[in-house]
Design a protein that fits this description.
By secondary structure, this protein is α/β, with parallel strands linked by helices. It has 20 helices and 20 strands.
C-alpha cells in the first residue's frame, strides 16, 4: 500500500514558481519525482494500526511502546517494528451535535453516499457532528476555491493548499477570511488539544503566513523523495561503489546499453523519467544545485538557474542523453508509463516518496514480482567530484485546514472545531487513528496475520477522502517487514544530514502568482531543447536573461522583501 501523500509540485528546472510540502512547498515540478508520485495519491502506505482494546489509557504516547525506534533527528519519524500498545487520545466526544461544513481536496473517487456509508455514519458518531464534506478533485480545486471565495459563504473548515498558482488563498488570508489561530495554537492554550500540541514546533513555524498561524497543517516527511537505483544491475555491471558523477554517468549509460538484465534485448534504461523531467531532481542534488533559490550572506537571492552548479548539472544531463542513458521517449513518457517501466524491471534509477518505495506495496517489493532478484536500493547521490551530494528538504507539510472567520466569531464554536481537528490528527497506534485509517473491522478492513489491517474495497469506497486533510505520513511501519521500518528511518536520517531547504518556502510573491506557471513552462521547454540538442548550451544564458526580464527579477525582489520582513518581525 502507498502513501496518501500528494504529488510534489516544485520545479526541477529552478524556476521562480514557488509557494508555501509533500506540499507541498510548491510550484510546478516536472521532474521524475513529480512524475512517479502523481498516480500514487490514492494509494495508502502500509502503515496500518491495530484496533485498540477497551480500557486503553487516554493520552498515552506511542513512542513509549515496544518496537518503537525514536529518532534523535528532528523531522525524522519514529520507526515501528511492531504495533504499539493500543491507546486512546480523546476521552470525550469533541462535537456538540451540530453540523460541520468541510471543503477538502480529494485524489479519490467520491465516497459512498452517507445513507449507505457505514464509515461516514460512524465518523459522525465519533466526532459528535454532522460531517458535511465537500470533496473537490485536484483538477478542479483551483477553480472551486476561487468561486467559493467569490461567493463569500465559506465552510467551517477549509483545506488550503497555497501555491504560486493560487494567489487567491493569500489574498483571502490578508482580507480576513480565516480565523487567526496564533493566540491559541502558538501559546500554552494548545495543551487543551493534546494531539495538536504533539506536533513539532517546526510544523507550526512552517505553516505561518506573515508570522501568524492560520490553520492546522497536514504533515508529510520533511526529507522525502529518495533516489533509488537497481543496485543489482550496478553490481553486475561493475559499479559497486558510486563515488562521483563520472561513475554514475558510466553506470547509467551501461544500464541502457550493456543488457543488465541479460535477456538479450535492448529494453533497459538508466533513466526513464516522466514528461521530460530528465531526472534533473536527482542530478541537481549530485551537483549541489540550490533548492530553487540560494540565500546569500548579504540577504540577496540567487535563483538556481543562475548558479554555476545548475549549468554543470545541465551540461552533465546533455552528455547523459547524448550517450544513451535515457529512455528514447523521455520527452513524452507519461506518469503511468514511467511507473510501469520501473515496476517492470526496466529502469535503473529514479526518485519518489518514501511511501511509494518502502514496504509491502512499495517499489522495492513490487518489482520482485517481475524480477525476484531485483535490489531497488535507496542512495544519497555522491557529490560531483566525490563525497556526498545534497538532498532537498521541504517545510514538512502539505497544505493546512483553516477555520473560517464566520465560524470563529463564537469562541465556544472555535474551540469545538479545534477539538474536532484534534481528534482527526490522532497519532499512529491510537484507537482514533485506527478507525480513521481502517474504519470498522470486518467491514472496512481485515486484520493481517502479522498485525495491522488492510482496507477492503468497501473500506476504500466508504472512506474516500472524507478525512484526507488530517491523515499524514509521520511514521515508518510496514506489516510483516519489521526491518524495513528501521531501514527507512536510517536512510531518512542520512537524507536529513545533507539536506538543504528552499529559503523562500512559505513566502508569497504576487508576480510569481501571476507569472510563475508561464515562466516554469518556458524554462522546461528551453531546458528540453538544450538537452535534446535543438539548442546549444549557450541558450542557457538567453534563458536566464529572459527569465529575469519576464518577471524573475521582480519575483526575486518580492521574496527578498518578504524574507527581510520575516526576519525583522
Amino acid at each position: 500500500m502507498r502513501s496518501s501523500q500528494s504529488p510534489k509540485t516544485e520545479s526541477a528546472f529552478g524556476s521562480g514558481a514557488v509557494s508555501r510540502r509533500r506540499v507541498l512547498a510548491a510550484s510546478l515540478k516536472t521532474s521524475t519525482a513529480a512524475a512517479l508520485s502523481l498516480p500514487l495519491a490514492n494509494r495508502v502506505a502500509a502503515q496500518a494500526t491495530p484496533q485498540a482494546t477497551p480500557g486503553a489509557t487516554p493520552g498515552a504516547t506511542p513512542g513509549a511502546s515496544a518496537g518503537a525506534v525514536v529518532s534523535s533527528v528532528e523531522g525524522v519519524p519514529t520507526a515501528y517494528t511492531q504495533y504499539p500498545e493500543p491507546f486512546t487520545t480523546v476521552s470525550e466526544t469533541p462535537g456538540g451535535g451540530g453540523a460541520v461544513r468541510v471543503l477538502a481536496l480529494s485524489y479519490s473517487p467520491p465516497p459512498t453516499p452517507r445513507e449507505d456509508n457505514q464509515y461516514w455514519q460512524e465518523l459522525e458518531t465519533r466526532l459528535g457532528v454532522t460531517w458535511e464534506a465537500d470533496l473537490v478533485p485536484i483538477d478542479s480545486y483551483g477553480e472551486r476555491i476561487s468561486t467559493t471565495f467569490a461567493g463569500g459563504d465559506l465552510p467551517d473548515l477549509f483545506y488550503l493548499l497555497p501555491s504560486a498558482t493560487r494567489p487567491v488563498i493569500y489574498e483571502a488570508i490578508e482580507q480576513g477570511a480565516f480565523a487567526d489561530l496564533t493566540d491559541i495554537l502558538g501559546s500554552d492554550q494548545i495543551n487543551e488539544f493534546p494531539n495538536l500540541a504533539a506536533y513539532p514546533s517546526y510544523l507550526w513555524d512552517a505553516v505561518r503566513v506573515n508570522g501568524r498561524i492560520w490553520g492546522v497543517p497536514k504533515p508529510v516527511l520533511r526529507n522525502n523523495d529518495p533516489t533509488y537505483y537497481r543496485r543489482d544491475w550496478g553490481n553486475a555491471l561493475g559499479f559497486e561503489t558510486l563515488a562521483d558523477s563520472q561513475i554514475v554517468h558510466d553506470m547509467l549509460v551501461a544500464m541502457s546499453t550493456n543488457d543488465p538484465d541479460g535477456n538479450g534485448a535492448a529494453d533497459t534504461y538508466g533513466l526513464a523519467p516522466f514528461g521530460g523531467g530528465w531526472g534533473a531532481f536527482i542530478i541537481n542534488q549530485m551537483f549541489g544545485v540550490p533548492y530553487l533559490w540560494r540565500l546569500n550572506d548579504d540577504g540577496t537571492l540567487a535563483n538556481a538557474i543562475e548558479t554555476d552548479e545548475y549549468r554543470q548539472s545541465l551540461e552533465y544531463i546533455v552528455r547523459l542523453n547524448a550517450d544513451g542513458a535515457y529512455h528514447p521517449d523521455t520527452v513524452n513518457l507519461n506518469v503511468t508509463q514511467a511507473e510501469e517501466l520501473m515496476l517492470g524491471g526496466r529502469t535503473g534509477m529514479a526518485t519518489n516518496g518514501f511511501a511509494a518505495i518502502f514496504g509491502n506495496g512499495g517499489y522495492r517489493q513490487e518489482v520482485k514480482a517481475v524480477v525476484p532478484a531485483a535490489d531497488l536500493h535507496p542512495i544519497i547521490m555522491p557529490g560531483a567530484t566525490g563525497g556526498k551530494g545534497i538532498t532537498y528538504q521541504t517545510p514538512g507539510f502539505f497544505g493546512f485546514t483553516a477555520i473560517s472567520a464566520q465560524a470563529a466569531q463564537d469562541d465556544a464554536r472555535l474551540r469545538e472545531l479545534l477539538r474536532v481537528m484534534n481528534y482527526l490528527v490522532a497519532p499512529f497506534g491510537s484507537e482514533e487513528n485506527t478507525f480513521l485509517n481502517y474504519g470498522i473491522p470486518g467491514v472496512h478492513s481485515e486484520e493481517l496475520p502479522d498485525g495491522g489491517f488492510e482496507r477492503t474495497e468497501q473500506g476504500t469506497a466508504d472512506r474516500s477522502a472524507l478525512v484526507y486533510p488530517f491523515l499524514s505520513e509521520n511514521y515508518f511501519y510496514y506489516s510483516g517487514l519489521p526491518d524495513e521500518a528501521t531501514f527507512a528511518q536510517q536512510y531518512n536520517e542520512q537524507m536529513a544530514a545533507v539536506a538543504v531547504a528552499n529559503p523562500t518556502a512559505g513566502l508569497f510573491s504576487p508576480t510569481n502568482g501571476e507569472q510563475g506557471a508561464e515562466l516554469t513552462q518556458y524554462l522546461a521547454d528551453t531546458y528540453t531543447s538544450i538537452v535534446t540538442g535543438r539548442e546549444p548550451i549557450t541558450a542557457l544564458d538567453t534563458m536566464i536573461s529572459e527569465w529575469k526580464s519576464r518577471g524573475g527579477d521582480q519575483i526575486r525582489q518580492e521574496y527578498q522583501d518578504a524574507i527581510a520582513q520575516r526576519e525583522s518581525s
